[in-house]
Amino acid sequence: MTTADALEDELAYLDDGRRVSFTVDETVYPLDAIYGAAYLFVERCFVFLDRPADQKVEVRLKPKSTPADGELDALAGEFANELLNQVLRQRVSESTARIREYYMARAFFSAPAQASIDQLLAELDAEEMEEDDLEISVPWETSDAGGGGA
After folding, report:
1. Full domain range(s) for residue 122
2. What secondary structure letter does DSSP report for 67?
3. pLDDT, tens digit, for every residue of 99-150?
4. Are the C-beta atoms of 49 and 57 separated by less than 8 Å?
5. I need a surface site. Which of 19, 63, 112, 119 has the fewest CB within 10 A?
6. CATH number, domain with residue 22
7. What pTM was estimated for this model as a whole?
8. What is the dihedral of CA 17, 71, 20, 42, to 10 degrees?
9. Is residue 61 part of a domain?
């Protein structure tokens, strides 16, 4: 059995020599995962999505250049792997959402954080005043000691 035959056994897809297409079941892969996977392929392929039936999304990948031998099979396999990756990312995101919300709330609404930001800004201002080698920040009034107005 060749590699292409093994891929066909694991993922049902159509390859017409110019593009590869397959139908994804939304009960297995949520629509956001399909969109995420499709987005990662827009650099390499023209990506077309269609809804042939309820809870089904047809994905068509057409390489932007003429595909080499086996490239369409590889695209189908890579897209299937990316679907799994996107589902996992989505599940991790959902399971850690409360932790992220807690850290963001703590970062934005705690008083010591604001005080430290103000302190850092004051330090930056002080450093800028010390590093004025050309004395550009000296006020005009102090440079004219003779008072020679008109």
Report:
1. 98-133
2. P
3. 999 888 887 776 555 567 788 888 888 776 666 566 666 566 655 555 555 5
4. yes
5. 112
6. 3.30.1360.20
7. 0.62
8. -130
9. yes
Q: Do the domain assignments include residue 145?
A: no
Report the alpha-carbon distance of residue 63 to residue 146 in Å, rounded: 76
Question: Percent helix, strand and coil across the chain, each rounded to 5?
Answer: 55, 15, 30
Cα separation, 13 vs 75, whole angstroms: 11
Q: Which two tokens stand for residue 99?
A: 């932790």
Where are any strands of DSSP class E within 11-144? 14-15, 20-25, 45-53, 56-63
Contact in structure between 57 and 24 (CB atoms under 8 Å): yes
Of 78, 13, 20, 90, which Cα lies nearest the Cα of 48? 20
d(CA 128, CA 124): 6
- Judge whether 150 lies within some domain: no
Contact status, residue 51 vs residue 58, Cβ threshold 8 Å: yes
